[in-house]
Amino acid sequence: MVKVTLIPGDGIGPEITEAMLKCVEATGADIQWEKVLAGSAAMEKYGVPLPEETITSFKKTRVLLKGPITTSFGTGFRSVTVALRQTFDLYANVRPAKSIEGVESKFKNVDLVIIRENTEGSYSGIEFQKASPELKELIQLLKRTHNVIIDEDTAISLKKISVKASQRIVKFAFDYAVQHNRRKVTCVHKANIHKFSDGLFLEEARRIAQLYPDIVYEEKVVDNMAMQLVMKPEEYDVLVTPNLYGDILSDLAAGLVGGLGLLAGANIGSEYAMFEPVHGSAPKYAGLNKVNPTAMINSAVMMLRHLKMFREAELLEKATLKVIKDGVKVTYDLYNKPEGSPAGTMEMADEITRQIELLLQKGDV
Ligand code: NAD
Q1: Range(s) of the chain covered by CATH 3.40.718.10
Q2: Can you tell me the distance from the alpha carbon of 224 to that of 260, in angstroms, rounded to the nearest whole number?
Q3: What is the torsion angle, in degrees rounded to the nearest 10, for the CA atoms of residue 75, residue 126, residue 172 and residue 199?
Q4: Among 29, 33, 28, 27, CA closest to 4
Q5: Residue limits of CATH 3.40.50.2300 in the chain
Q6: Does residue 345 sit in helix, strand or coil?
Q7: Of the four listed, 149, 173, 284, 330, which is most buried by Cβ atoms within 10 Å?
C-alpha cells in the first residue's frame, strides 16, 4: 500500500479527480489517498490557500496528485501551484505532448517533451506594487545603479535566474533524453534581450551540453521557437526552457496535439514529486460534467510510473488511448462524429473503466 496526497482543486478539479479516481481504482493500484485541501476550498475552511495539513501530508507521502487550482488575475492570493513547486523544490516540470490516434489536430507526428525550470525566472514572486514603499526604494536604487528614471505609477516584477537552477534543469533535460532514448535537446531562451538572466541560462546549457556528446544540442530564441513549433513540430524532441517560456510553449504544444484536455505534467524534485494536468480550473465549465478527464488521468499515469506501478500505468494508458481512438464515449473537445453527442466527464471515465476491465479479462497487459 502506497500513500499519496490528493488535492482535487477548484473549478473542474473535483469532477476530473472523481473520474480519475474511478479509473485508477479499476487498475487495482494499491494506493491509499490522503485527500487534503488547497486553493479556494482551503480558504473557506482554514482561511489560507495552502494549509499546514496539506504541507504535512505531502512531506510525509512525498507524492502528490493535484487538480487545477484557481488563481485570480492580478489580485487575491498568490498561486498555490507555484508555492508548492517552490516550497518542495520541484525544480523540473516535465510536460510531454504527443499526437494521439483518433484526435483531430493539424499535425499527426508530434512527440515533444517540454522541460521547464520550475522554481525561479519570472515566477520568482519578487514583485513591487505600484506606489509601495518598496517600489520607491527600488526606484531610487535603479536611478543610482542604472541611471534610469522610473515613474512611481509603475509596477515591477523581477526575473531571477541562477547558475545552480540553470545547471540542474539542463542536466535533468539531458539525463531525461538519455533515459528515454531521445535524440535532441533544444535550449529555448531570449538571451538577445535578457542578456544577463537568459544569457546565464544559455551559457550553462552550453556547458552541460558538452557532457552529452551523443545528444544533439541546439538553441532557439523563444519567439522563433513558437513559430517553428506551429510550422514543423515534428522536428523537435526535448525542449529545455526557463520558467515562463516553458509554461507558454506547453499550452501551445497542447494545441498542436488536440487541446488542453489531454496534457499532463510532472513536477520533480530530488525528494518530492507532484503530478497535475497542464490545464487550469476552467471555471466556466465547473460542475457541468462536460470537460475531458484525460489530462488528470494522464497525470495519474505519470504518477503510477513514478511509483513503479508499471502494469497499472500501462493498463490505464492503454484503456484511455483505446477510448479516444474509438471516439464514441469522448468529451466535447474530442468528439467528431457526424451524429450522436459527446460523452460527459463521468461517462468517458466509465468507458475507460470498462476498457480496463476488458484488458484485465484478456490478460492483455
Ligand atoms: P484553463 O486551462 O483553465 O482553461 C482554458 C480553456 O482550455 C478552457 O476554457 C477550455 O476551453 C480548455 N480546457 C481546459 N481544461 C480542459 C479540459 N479538461 N477539457 C476540455 N477543455 C479544457 O485556463 P484559464 O481559463 O486561463 O485559467 C483558469 C484558472 O486556472 C486561472 O485561475 C488560472 O490561474 C488557473 N490555472 C491553474 C493551473 C494549475 O493549477 N496548475 C494551471 C493553469 C491555470
Answers
A1: 1-103+258-365
A2: 22
A3: 120
A4: 33
A5: 105-112+161-257
A6: helix
A7: 173
For domain 105-112+161-257, the CATH class is alpha beta
Average pLDDT over residues 77-97: 94
Q: Looking at ligand 1, which residue's alpha carbon is closest to its atom 22?
A: 261
Residue nearest to atom 37 of ligand 1 (CA): 280
* Cα dihedral 293, 319, 7, 180 sign: negative
Q: For residue range 13-58, what is the model confidence (pLDDT) as tens digits?
A: 999 999 999 999 999 999 999 999 999 889 999 999 999 999 999 9
Distance 278 CA to ligand 1 centre (A): 8
Share of the chain above pLDDT 90, in %: 95
State the distance from the centre of ligand 1 to the C-alpha of 84, rounded, in angstroms. 18
217 is catalytic: no
What CATH class does 1-103+258-365 carry?
alpha beta
66, 171, 176, 190: which is the annotated catalytic residue? 190
pTM of the model: 0.96
11 Cα to the center of ligand 1, angstroms: 9
pLDDT score of 118:
96
